[in-house]
Design brief:
This protein is of the alpha+beta class. It has one domain: OB fold (Dihydrolipoamide Acetyltransferase, E2P). It contains four helices and nine strands, in the order E-E-E-H-E-E-E-E-E-H-H-E-H. The strands form two sheets. A six-stranded antiparallel β-sheet has the order 1-2-3-9-8-5. Strands 4-6-7 form a three-stranded antiparallel β-sheet.
Length: 127
Amino acid sequence: MLTYPQELKYVKSHEFVRVEGNVAVIGITAFAADQLGDVTFVELPKAGTSFKRDDKFGVIESVKSVSDLFMPVSGKVVAVNEKLSSEPELVNSDCYGAGWMMKVELADASELNSAMSASDYQSFVVD
């Protein structure tokens, strides 16, 4: 069964945000990972790169498709999950934990006000 942790924020492009102080931990949701199937490659930006909300930040490839990844918030990348270059399957096995993609210093925390709660996201993907 797919999970949607209550403490996370979600966006319609299927990324999640976990806020840790003024840093946003970003990855894709269990729903997105399930829809993609087995992830074979993840392309992420370098630390130090800045993005605006909704900018494309990377690409994820699976046995089924290639999809763009979009920023759920504006900010500067402060860390990238290097493990995904050799173990992209972590996105499937633990998307909210070991399969996180990057950490971003929040430029404007109020942008999270437009993100969905876990129950809202669950309704969005079920409908």
